[in-house]
Structure formats: structure tokens, C-alpha cells
Amino acid sequence: MSMEMNLKLTQEQKLVMTQEMQLSIRILQMSSVELLDYLEKEYQENPVLDTEMPDEVPRDTTQEIDYKSLLKYLESDNYSGSEVQDYDKDEVSPLNFVSKEETLSEYLTDQIRVLDLDSLTEAIAEFIIDSLDPKGYFSDPIDEIAELLNVTTDDVMKALLVVQSLEPVGIGARDLKECLMLQLERKGLATPAHREVIQNHLDDFAEGRTASIAKSLKLTPGEIQDIMDDIRVLEPKPSRGFADGRGSSYIIPDGSVRIENGEIMLEMNTEFIPRLKISKACRDLMNSSDHKDAHEYLKDMMNKALFVLKSVDQRKDTVKTVIEAAVNKQKEYFVKGSDFLKPMTMKDIAEDLGVHESTISRAIREKYITTPKGTIRVKDLFKTAAKGSNTEVATDYVRDSIQNMIKGEDARSPLSDQAITDALNASGIDIKRRTVAKYREELGIRSSSKRKRI
């Protein structure tokens, strides 16, 4: 076999694995509502899928499909399944003009598909688009994604640069600094001075410390002011203005937690998932059909259906494993109350389970559980910690402490941020005044000078 053919085969194998992994990860990070919508759509569009749902009358696939009607279906506009097509050729369905909000993912994917990209780069780029956080940033480590998709880091970087070239500018940035630099580069303003301000003086920029930056960069305050004006009009959140893609205000809990004799009991909710299966009639038709096009089409649909079913099963197992690990680690929270929520990060659970942190992030995305306290997001069980001399305390506990101190203060002599800091330090929580001020502002509490009453 020639080197060229070997290379082509390797690329094709990479592409298939990347597309399958992309689908598997997409399904993992879907909320229950999104998964239900996705499976209903797959059921409608893939003739190989049948359902065991008791409320549904299974499709009579034997009567519905033969290779002649199948080929006619393939050649028709109905194949896309994206528009209402029950009208005569010269008529237009009014439903095709119903306005719908466009998600960022849809907007970016539309741009990707008109570019002249090789199939592997396009598949990785679409994976990156699916992995963007709510702000439009791509925070997953490049080497981790390469390992996950069985491609090289160069393959991932090539696709990331494609995503970063799309509109809105700044999309796919790995952090705020890169987001701002991408926008400046597109505007032709990425001078060394602009770069220096963004890379090393963002805190000074936020506080308006023009003189400090000018002194450090050996520029005049006027020159620094011009640079700051350029940066000030940039968009730190490139996803702003796009629909979030949820399209629904209701949720379907993924599981429920109850307490029995002081023990945690977790029960997963899988009843909402349609019980899909491969249609026996389609299997028989594929095995008996002598028509090459019909056989190949059914084979493709069969492979896709099998992988969807496999991915849904993997999602069930992964989500259950992750939620179970998180719930068990926070046992005291469920048994004793919210004051006992311990610091716990996604990295902690990832290390316990021997998986990537990004897997944990996707597994808990928009996942909910019902508890004796009500329905909560699984993500809310994960809390960072404030380091103390004697212990580690969840940030929520610190915020609650600040709020309680302020509630009990003398209105004529309210506590300053420094006084609160000193009190927390005395209780064993090592925290800076700046952090106290940040938490106070997040709680919507004004400064001590504005709280003072005469």
C-alpha cells in the first residue's frame, strides 16, 4: 500500500472517530430537555429507528419503506427534514417563515460549512463550537481535546484558528486577554503597547490607573488614554446577543436524592428517554435488498442509529457515575443542611473517577436533581474554597458570613471591608480585603459609607 493511500486511510479513520466522538460528547452535555428533543428529531428523520414507547404506535416500517420509495425520498427535498414540505411545488408553507432565534452554535456552524475546509478540520471545528462556554470562550486544554478525539494537537490548533476567524470577533478565545487581542488584531490595532496593556496591566486598566501604566510602558498619559479608549469599546463576551439554545423554560430532573436513616439514596430518572431500537423491518430490508443505493443508505442510517443508541447509553452511565460521586462527597450537605456544603471542584471528581475534567464539566452541564430541599443544579454542588489557616471553607459560606455580619452591624457605624476581613481572619479564614469587597458587591450590598445612617 502506497504512503499516499496510507495517509488518506489514516485521515478517513481519524474523521470517522472524530465525528463519532463529537456526537457522543454532544449527547453527554445535553440537558434532559435537549436530549428528548434530539431523540424525537432523530426518530422522525431516521427510518431505521423504531420506538418501544407504550404511548406511541410503532411505525409500520414494512409497509412504509421499499427501495423504490426510499430512493424517491432520497432525491426529494424532504430528505433534509428542515422545512415543512407538504405543500404543492408552487406553494410555500407559511411555517417556513416563522421567526426563530438563532443560537451562537448555529450561526458559527453555518459559517464553517461555507468554508473550503478538509473534512477533519471541519469536524474538529464543529466540536470546538459545541464546546464553547456561555461567554463564547474555548477553555478546554488543547492536548486533552487531541487525546479525546484521537487527533494531533496541530489538528486541534488548526481548527481552533478557523473558529477564531469567524464572526463575532473574539469567539473561541481561551481567555479574556486572547478575546481582546483577537478583536484588536481584526481592527489592525494590535500594537506592542496595546498587547502589553492587555497582557500585563488589565487590573490597572480596570481601575483607570493611567499614570501607572504610562510609567511602566514609558509612554505619555495621553498615549495610554488612547490605548485604553481602543480597549474599552471591545466586547469581553462575544456570545452576547445570541439565544442560549435551550428554547424551553422547563426542566426534567436527571435524578432524585432522598435520605433514608441518615443514608443518601440516589435514583436516576431515565423514564423521559424514548426507548428507541433498530427496526427489524429495516434490518430485513437491508439484508434482502439488491439495490446498491438503497442498501448503502440503510447501512449509513443503521450505523448512525447504532451510534446514537450507544451514545445515549454512555450518557446514562457517565451522568449517573458523576452525580453519584458528587452527591456522596456532599453527603453532609444533604443530611445536615446548606452550611455543610464542602469545597469540591470538578478536578476533585475527575481525579476520583480517573477521567478528564472536561468530561465532568460536560456531564454536569444543565443537569438537575430533586432533593428534600427542592430541585437544584448538580453544578451547585461544586464550590471553590477560601483557604484558611485551620480549614477550607466554601465561598458560599464566606459570602453568608459577610452577609450575616452586615445584617447584625450598627447602622450608625457600619462595618468596613477591612473590619469584616479582620473578623474573618480571626475566625481562621485567610481572606484579603479585596476579596471581601468583591463578595460584598456580588451580594448587592453597598459600601460602609453608603450604608451609614445618622
From TrEMBL:
UniProt entry keywords in alphabetical sequence: DNA-binding, DNA-directed RNA polymerase, Nucleotidyltransferase, Sigma factor, Transcription, Transcription regulation, Transferase
Ranges where the RNA polymerase sigma factor 54 core-binding domain occurs: 96-280
Gene Ontology biological process terms from the UniProt entry: DNA-templated transcription initiation
Pfam families: Sigma54_AID (PF00309), Sigma54_CBD (PF04963), Sigma54_DBD (PF04552)
Signal peptide per UniProt: none
GO cellular component: DNA-directed RNA polymerase complex
Molecular function GO terms recorded: DNA binding; DNA-binding transcription activator activity; nucleotidyltransferase activity; sigma factor activity
Family stated for the protein in its record: Belongs to the sigma-54 factor family.
Protein known as: RNA polymerase sigma54 factor
Protein's organism: Youngiibacter fragilis 232.1
